[in-house]
Design a protein that fits this description.
By secondary structure, the protein is an all-alpha fold. It has helices at residues 3-19, 26-67. This is YtxH domain-containing protein.
């Protein structure tokens, strides 16, 4: 492959990247806000589930100790 072909291929691959617009419209901003809220909610639910699991494990250990 000669140099001209390489340059042409690289230019073709770079065009889609240059076409991306960084100016987000209101719908894009709203979508990002929804994604962020969902991520935060998922993290809080994961933390709560971990706390519940730890509480159940502690209760099981205490119950096992009392049976000894």
């Amino acid at each position: 492959m000669n140099l001209l072909q390489r340059v042409f291929i690289i230019a073709l691959l770079a065009v889609p990247l240059a076409a991306c617009d960084s100016n987000d419209g209101p719908a894009e901003k709203l979508g990002e806000d929804v994604d962020k809220a969902l991520d935060e909610t998922r993290d809080k639910l994961d933390d709560a589930a971990d706390e519940i699991k730890d509480g159940i494990e502690d209760a099981c250990e205490k119950a096992s100790d009392k049976n000894c």
